[in-house]
Design brief:
The structure is a homotetramer. The two termini of chain A are about 35 Å apart. Helices cover about 25% and strands about 20% of the residues of chain A. In chain A, β13 (about 230), α8 (about 250-255) and β14 (about 260-265) form a beta-alpha-beta unit. Chain A has a nine-stranded mixed beta sheet, with helices on both faces. A two-stranded antiparallel sheet of chain A has the order 2-3. The first copy, chain A, has nine helices and 17 strands. The longest helix of chain A has 11 residues, at about 170-180. The first copy, chain A, has about 300 residues and is an alpha/beta fold. In chain A, α5 crosses α7. Chains in contact: A-B, A-C, A-D, B-C, B-D, C-D. At the A-B interface, α2, β1, β2, β3 and β7 of A face α2, β1, β2, β3 and β7 of B.
Amino acid sequence: MSEPRKFPPESDVEKLFDDVNNRGRWGPDDELGTLNYITSQKRVAAAGLVKAGRALSIARDLNTSQSPNNPSPVRHTMCYQAHEPIGAIDEIALGMHGFTLTHLDAIAHVYRGQDVYNGRNASVVATPSGLTYCDILAQKDGIFTRGVLLNIARVRGVPWMAPDQGVFAADLDAAERLQRIRVESGDAIFVYTGLQKRELTEGPENLGQRVGIMPDAIRWMHEREIAVYSGDCVDAFPNPYSLRYAIYFHAVALAAMGLILLDIPALEPLVEICDAMGRSEFLLTMAPLRIKGGTGSPVNPIALF
Amino acid sequence: MSEPRKFPPESDVEKLFDDVNNRGRWGPDDELGTLNYITSQKRVAAAGLVKAGRALSIARDLNTSQSPNNPSPVRHTMCYQAHEPIGAIDEIALGMHGFTLTHLDAIAHVYRGQDVYNGRNASVVATPSGLTYCDILAQKDGIFTRGVLLNIARVRGVPWMAPDQGVFAADLDAAERLQRIRVESGDAIFVYTGLQKRELTEGPENLGQRVGIMPDAIRWMHEREIAVYSGDCVDAFPNPYSLRYAIYFHAVALAAMGLILLDIPALEPLVEICDAMGRSEFLLTMAPLRIKGGTGSPVNPIALF
Amino acid sequence: MSEPRKFPPESDVEKLFDDVNNRGRWGPDDELGTLNYITSQKRVAAAGLVKAGRALSIARDLNTSQSPNNPSPVRHTMCYQAHEPIGAIDEIALGMHGFTLTHLDAIAHVYRGQDVYNGRNASVVATPSGLTYCDILAQKDGIFTRGVLLNIARVRGVPWMAPDQGVFAADLDAAERLQRIRVESGDAIFVYTGLQKRELTEGPENLGQRVGIMPDAIRWMHEREIAVYSGDCVDAFPNPYSLRYAIYFHAVALAAMGLILLDIPALEPLVEICDAMGRSEFLLTMAPLRIKGGTGSPVNPIALF
Amino acid sequence: MSEPRKFPPESDVEKLFDDVNNRGRWGPDDELGTLNYITSQKRVAAAGLVKAGRALSIARDLNTSQSPNNPSPVRHTMCYQAHEPIGAIDEIALGMHGFTLTHLDAIAHVYRGQDVYNGRNASVVATPSGLTYCDILAQKDGIFTRGVLLNIARVRGVPWMAPDQGVFAADLDAAERLQRIRVESGDAIFVYTGLQKRELTEGPENLGQRVGIMPDAIRWMHEREIAVYSGDCVDAFPNPYSLRYAIYFHAVALAAMGLILLDIPALEPLVEICDAMGRSEFLLTMAPLRIKGGTGSPVNPIALF
């Protein structure tokens, strides 16, 4: 059994926040953040990854069942049309975040204190009628880039990581070596720790005790210039820091780096297809709904092989 | 000024329904309909269209303003988090269809009488808890294929078509000739009649008087084996037929052909970029939300050049 | 142990529907149904029942927890106001009927076949934008009348009735005798069978096996000219009749009599206070929300003693 | 033309807040506020006001039309039931406050700074899952008391008051004299300034310029021990004070007095019936929906004569 993770002091996280801060990097009005790494050339190259012509959704179904991990489920209503209906219509209502919906975060979704990406202040950005800066609409033209799966459970030699573990920079390096691939500027990475497999055996994840991305791995992501982070682990719980860093990974990624986060992907089928095809890379395509002022959007990301 | 369109008798539409019917073509349990035309090879070839690396959304913003053409607008609510917020969260509620939301239809969304695609019956398929067959979830792996813009307004030599006009097979043929492109099996076509340009001048479209796809154009689509239809015109209004064909294009396309329909795209920016780049074809990517039982889904389709 | 209930043949229910039909009784355009029994004099007399000045809610809390008996729970959302909030705001979303919400039915809520109260037809009355006749708005001036508790469990000498039992006219007569009260024109009756007490012991009610109001008790209600029916039992399940009478009590009460139904009251505290005060009668006050076209409304009925 | 209103300095409002503060008056855990004035005797006496047996709703219809004064309208959806429907069902979604919905406020709905009624602090009381103290559920047993209409427009001799006017204590005194009635402990008062009549002529109210209850009238209400305030005027706009008193009447009434507020009543029909019957007093009955944690509730108050 491995040791539980150890966290650096909060002062290190403060320093990290400054070190990886992309404020001003793409101009004072930039709302794309790390999507700027996805250049035209990157897109063309990513398109070249479609060799077998196979497509796979890596989203979960919208979850309409209430449970402790899904207290406010999606509401799906079939609507009245007529007594001689010519078709069927319906409505949905959903919250953007939480632990069951596959979704993209708007860059201004999470703050560090009141700090929002690119030097903005939350009290100005977040209003009752929506975000006025770095809302999800900023990502309207979608994400089309190389996706890379990094199988950390395999690196560790376990079917799944225990909830008191963390993903360190060394794990990411090791995954690259094991998989013989190198993460490059503009990539979307998918970090796999085996969570859904664990849940099949041990039951629904305890939200108070979660595998986390460790601070040095955030620095790694900055240095590698990734455009999108996704994975079955994000912020460690219990949170070792103050309210300022209550969800430190989201806070640093969004408010400092402007790093695009794809939360709650469905990774098991992705691992299976990657293993079956002997590949770690694929074309990733996804686009948020065009919600002006929105803090995020449900999405259905597609991996193409 | 051109003559108003003339419609064939309803008996011709009945015959059309049978002639273009794909019932059983892909097996008795098929739920993909014309998405079957998008083969692995088609996907690989479509990826090859990404030459400049440019991406463009062809969705409209979710519309939260009530108007006669948008009686039940999207509801966007910023939600309570805490008195010392660490971020911003929100919810949306929306209906799947209508005239302002860019959305994909589930194949079982519209019936011909009680007839649903592939020999199913609406009274069994459409239940209070959702569609049990050919729901939007059937399209979960998304659409990745060649998109082709067909500029019918240009064929006609007008900035926009008048609301009493129709798009005939001959128009589609003429667009191919003019644009020097040929629609092929598995393509997604985007038929442009200049509607949004007309609305800028003449005000919001009168929903009771709409340009329509004419029956012979539906037959053309069947023969060409298109996978997806999209455009700024769909069913003609006023409707010339009985309740059985109240929206005849949707009825034939969905209930007979299993043709995937992308309603309410934003075509003006697509026309502009096509003109600017001298292209009529592009890679189209989109994927519906994974709504089990859903009759459709909001989407944000992306065109790649 | 008593015998399970026996139902008369459906032909008897057809006859009952005609016998108790109030069609035309209060004019061809009447939308009040049995609320017509509540005359000005009845209201004045009912006010006279307020002797002790005690008030008691007989509604249940809105239920936001999903369960088999509450598949689509009320959704309660705290909303965003500002970073320096001056107060708290929220939203609710709810369906009007079901088994957990205390609610009033609109008279046109349930049909017999396509028959709606006072000779109307459902295909005309029920439209996608709401009921055009006998909606809940028709009851906008509220209900202010005498309420009478009829304790059938006590008549039967049991703490609660078993789910295969029924409430017959003879039970209502027996309750009157035992409680020394007589139900009169314009009264609201509350029939108690001990359901909530049973649920405390045996768990949530099985919706497929429910105590029911028997057809002869419906006739009794008609003869006594009650204005409002409420109780912890309504339609018997499993349903012994065809789809035409799938919920026969609702069908006869609403579509024939125009009898106002208050579903899912909270009767335990009412029984307690009645027992404690040695009373079976009280002033009942309640009023639906003014929902134009609505099929019902959540309410909070108040009993005054 | 009369002079525009003049406001006392904010220091006077601070003093008012302390002078009228009911903190501790009904115990440290009281959640009823001024409803404590409605004693059993008060209820019995109020019941005696029902002499003619007439009932009148003083709510507005739920408003589903979007407009500048109703930016987030009530959403009413007819729901899918079956292809052979046996009835009609629907859903509503609504926000609790605003300028078009007749609603009761929870006492903790508005703060003075972070101060909530009875010495509580907003950061503890208002949580993402609802109010933990003085929510609308605290008022679950409803309001049953004497209502008194005070016609200030008539006192002033105008059909309606201009938007730069205020209602002073002297106006309330004058109305009592003119109408020969005296407001007493436990009463619900309805202050009428002719707003809806003005809107018929001048168009929808400008929310930035509203008739207001003046601070000395708040003191009057405290001295008279009213239980409920309602009226077609509340807080004056533009607001003369700091954010601490952004809506000073709500802040003082709710956070200091625990005074129950019934916002957005429909007063025109009430004025008409009072005039027709030569009465200024009536029995008022209403009860909020039982929303645990709720900040308010839509209601349909009924006046009985």
